[in-house]
Amino acid sequence: MLDFPSNISTGSVLESRPAWLTNLSANWVAPVLACGSPAVDAHSARGINDHWETKCNMHNRANKVRVDSSANTSVQTPRTTSPISALSFPQRLAGLFRDHWQIICLVLISLCMHMYVFSFADRLIYDEKFWVPEARHILEREPLDWPQYTALSKLFMTSGIYILGDNPWGWRTPSAIFGVASIVLVYLIARRLAGKRTALLASLLFTTENLVFTFSGLAMLDVFAVAFMLLSFLLYLHHRYTLSGLSLALAVVCSPKVLLAVFAVLAHWFFVRRKRGLRAIGVFAITSLLAFFILMTITDLTASGQCFNPFHRVVEMWTGQTSIKVSDMTAESLATAHPTRPWWWILNLRATLLEPTEFYHRMMITPTIWLLTIPSIAYLLYRYFFVRKNRNTPRFILLWFSATYLLWIPLELYTDRPLFLFYLLPSMGAICIAVAYGINQAWQRSAKAKGMVLRWSVRALLILYLVFHVGLFLVLSPLVAPLMRQAT
To answer: Which domain holds residue 166?
Structure first.
């Protein structure tokens, strides 16, 4: 009979293979296997021992402190040197590039494309005519033209002008940096939800999405808010509720429009994590509220030199955002501002087209993304309601899409406020992940197809879609603006 030492408990921490495990593998496991297979010899038994020893050592290294179940006290074990900590900085950098070279290449390519556009886009484009002068006012300590808008995004633009000068590089470099940071955050969120292949596909689609790329290279408020919103989602998925609340507060201080993202977090907690108690979501909510009021006061003081009542500021922001009505706008202002109804953003491709006179290119959603938006969301709904396996992935993406896009429809109907295409930017991450998730599922299903012709036909179609998407982005993006300018 197997003799287990009496001092073994669930809280014991073993730095080497214990004697009882050696006896188990050598005296019990190996003979039993040998009875069933005469091919098992001493060498095989040693292999079994080595397997159990490796598993035991991995378990010990992963748990540095255990709670002794019998004594209910913490048992400290000596820390062993991590293989990673023994590496030099160049070795760590090489390992990082080896593991994530695809996303690093996408970030560098996106940054290079932005810098190329900056080299010839020397005029204010679209709403830059509001926010670049506002940044200049902050830098020169003059009264602000748009004090009702929160100031953090303006301060980022001001820092760019202060460091790089009052030129296209100074106006737009902070936006480009936050834009490429959003690519990394979309990759990390998608990897957390659906694995590495879906994450790479989502980051590729997000990088080459024309609407995202265009507004990531403009001196406007939204790109900063979207980056902090994505960071908040990522931290929430990793159960970092305090930091998630802080990131969401930073997003709202950049642009109040992303406040709708809080409903995605609250709904996900209600459906998934409410049984764990109110503490986590309470920490998230309290951190968000406190950080928002503190950060808004600090940024207002920095931008305008004045300290406002934060509660009056909230009322002022709401009044300023809802006082303008579409029904009160003149035909000339409608033609200049390009307001659109939110349901047309995904139902009518022409409604996503903006051609500002300041620049020769089309501000629109890439048609390959627009075409698959509704089918991808419908597929996620099918996966959530009818496929019980891994429901968390479609659940979070659907809540994200619903909070940052669908909620605009009742708000627009209630307030009659003019909405604009770039209000869809907070939803583009969810849309790209949804499309990538569908592509990855189709690729996996093709591997199970019985016929080789069908299998490779599906894969060739998916590859062709990605190639066509990248090519269409290059045609529609600001990269071809000089050619369009010469043609006209």
So the answer is: 101-353+360-487
